[in-house]
UniProtKB/TrEMBL annotation, chain A:
It comes from the Bacteria. It comes from Sphingobium limneticum. InterPro entries: DUF2849. This is DUF2849 domain-containing protein. It holds the Pfam family DUF2849.
């Protein structure tokens, strides 16, 4: 699947296109098919996102998983600061990115 | 320390308000990201992997207690409670909101700080020796020259859009603690016939094409240093390649046209400059130098150190360096706890070090390119009290220049350019070599990790260097041996095929085993490597 990600213009937070808006959870990502580039342009013009780009991802038992490690780290947060990730109480969360 | 005059303060304040307006226009859509990006970068604001990142300039790595305290306050108020000290003696905040950036810059301006020229193709923060002004082996204090160059290079209209970024370092000792020859231009102050001047090195750097800067002039009198640098920059600005960013640094120009031709052109430009009378007035250098006069050292301070506490004694032996003033010492504070993140400090730790600087170090501290901190003016009688406070705060690691004193870039955990994570690897290596006796047995061993070819972690200059690469979406680590950023500067050589994260930790252990088996009395790891060469290490690693 193709998913769309970028950063919130105001906060800089990593965000994922969820079909009807943006989410901070990669698991909410929607398949943008061939429309990702147009969608990115529209959302950037609306000042809702900055640096938007389309990536490959797969759906696994654990939810949507970006294909590249860089985007998995963007999705989770810094692996060396579990307290600052989306799963602060999961000591093994960092293994998800590998 | 240097203090802003009204001109310094007014241009910094004006820049804050200018950026506030630019941010507002971006947030309302009056500026597109393409229009805004170069403006935010001129103010040190990047968009990184997880958020906006703000890089704050720490001129030649020197801070007052008040400035350090402000850095901690900003970390607590606007970030997530910590900051990251970099290999450029700067500080980075990783979690900045765009709307907050002007307020942060305004707060920095209240303590004479800013983020100007911490990005972009301009002259960046001038770096220097963290022992400047307190080391007995320097011919002069390099900080007045570093400050003069800061003023010369700030908003320099001719050098605001260079072919590429430009880094300058000034030292004044034979011992190079600042990786001087791995800068675009390195200055080493020297004395000749009673006159202070500088050796000038040009065309050094790391990144994808590492070079050790060659000497291009063995003496420039102090009053002509700025004019000579102006000539160096002019030749680079005229002929540096703007068609290819990977070949745009001055090191490529010097390499492609040759050192002799570059020197010839600089000399021609310098001869022209001399006719223009552009040297800064001697009075200005004298004005600046007055800010760096010796602080009020206490006469007759005790030389005694009570070493009854063995943990304290170990720390003194490793972290405390000789000071030029009797009864005083230089304290190195490790930001490399064994389970920590190299260069990171919490807001509370930053605040503590600010207090220690005010109480015990004549209100001054330094940041090192090795991502540690220094209290430069400590009475020996106060060492135990300082150590106790550092110990309570998790800042009393005794590992300066040992294998666990690892330089590591933020890597793929934070950086949008990185290919691999540096920090988890640094932590694994630190834990593998955690035993204090084992570290001491290995002695000086500088290990440096970069998460990509841009080499922010100085891997080329590590006695042991590690470069993280992306191999089909999987982190892979190349191992290098034999680099040095010191006065014996050299570039590390790749051992061979790369490793997984665990594999490179095992390989490092094999490398250190060979060193212990092969070394002769008094040899550091680097000395043994240079004597016996790569072959025995490769055989041990790859069988």
């Amino acid at each position: 699947m193709k998913i769309l990600t970028g950063n919130d213009l105001v906060t800089g937070d990593v965000i994922w296109w969820a079909g009807d808006g943006w989410s901070r959870q990669v698991g909410d990502s929607a398949d943008v098919g061939d429309h990702g580039t147009d969608l990115a342009r529209t959302e950037e013009a609306a000042l809702r996102v900055v640096g938007a780009y389309v990536i490959d991802a797969t759906v696994t038992d654990e939810g949507v998983r970006p294909a590249h490690i860089k985007d998995r780290i963007r999705a989770l947060g810094p692996t060396v600061r579990p307290d600052l990730t989306l799963k602060p109480n999961d000591a093994d969360a960092g293994n998800w990115v590998i | 320390m240097y203090r802003y005059d009204s001109y310094d303060q007014s241009i910094v304040n004006a820049r804050v308000e200018e950026f506030r307006d630019q941010v507002q226009r971006r947030l309302t859509g009056a500026l597109t990201e393409d229009q805004f990006k170069p403006l935010r970068l001129m103010n040190g604001l990047y968009l990184q992997l997880h958020a906006y990142m703000l890089r704050v300039a720490i001129p030649y790595g020197t801070l007052s207690g008040k400035q350090m305290r402000k850095l901690g306050e900003i970390a607590a108020k606007y970030d997530k409670g910590y900051g990251h000290f970099t290999t450029r003696q700067n500080l980075q905040y990783n979690w900045i909101k765009l709307a907050d950036a002007p307020d942060i810059l305004a707060e920095l301006a209240t303590v004479e700080m800013h983020a100007i020229q911490t990005s972009g193709n301009c002259i960046r923060n001038i770096s220097s020796d963290q022992y400047a002004g307190v080391s007995a082996d320097e011919v002069a204090d390099p900080r007045p020259w570093a400050e003069l160059l800061r003023q010369w290079s700030s908003f320099h209209p001719e050098f605001t859009y260079l072919p590429r970024k430009f880094k300058i370092c000034v030292i004044a000792s034979d011992d190079d603690r600042a990786a001087m020859r791995l800068h675009d231009i390195g200055l080493k102050l020297v004395e000749r016939d009673g006159v202070i001047g500088a050796e000038v090195y040009a065309g050094g750097g790391m990144g994808r094409t590492p070079m050790v800067a060659p000497l291009i002039r063995d003496f420039v009198p102090e009053e002509e240093i700025v004019s000579y640098l102006e000539a160096c920059l002019r030749v680079y600005n005229r002929y540096g390649r703007r068609d290819n960013k990977y070949k745009a640094r001055i090191k490529i120009l010097v390499h492609e046209i040759g050192v002799e031709d570059y020197k010839r052109q600089v000399e021609e430009e310098f001869a022209h400059m001399r006719t223009l009378g552009l040297n800064p007035p001697v009075e200005e250098l004298a004005r600046i130098r007055a800010f760096f006069a010796n602080p009020a050292y206490e006469a007759g301070a005790s030389e005694d150190i009570d070493r009854a506490d063995p943990a304290f004694a170990l720390w003194v032996d490793r972290q405390v360096a000789a000071h030029k003033q009797p009864g005083y010492a230089i304290v190195n504070i490790s930001l490399k706890p064994l389970t920590g993140i190299p260069g990171d400090a919490s807001a509370e730790q930053i605040d503590l070090v600010a207090s220690l600087a005010e109480q015990y170090s004549l209100d001054e501290l330094r940041v090192t390119h090795a991502q540690n901190l220094v209290l430069p003016h400590v009475k020996k009688a106060d060492l135990y009290a300082i150590w106790q406070k550092l110990e309570e705060a998790g800042l009393a690691e005794a590992n300066l220049d040992l294998i666990t004193d690892i330089i590591a870039c933020p890597g793929l955990d934070y950086c949008a350019l990185a290919n691999a994570r540096s920090i988890p690897l640094a932590q694994k290596i630190a834990q593998r070599f955690a035993d204090a006796e084992r570290q001491a047995e290995l002695g000086e061993l500088k290990l440096k990790i970069s998460g990509c070819i841009n080499a922010c972690g100085h891997h080329h200059a590590g006695h042991i260097g590690i470069l993280g690469v992306d191999r089909k979406g999987v982190e892979n680590f190349q191992l290098l041996l034999g680099g040095s950023g010191a006065e014996d500067a050299s570039l590390g050589q790749i051992t061979g095929p790369g490793f997984s994260e665990d594999g490179v930790v095992d390989a490092i252990e094999k490398v250190t085993d060979i060193y212990l088996a092969e070394r002769t009395s008094g040899e550091r790891f680097l000395d043994t490597y240079r004597r016996i060469g790569m072959k025995p290490f490769k055989e041990a690693i790859y069988g």
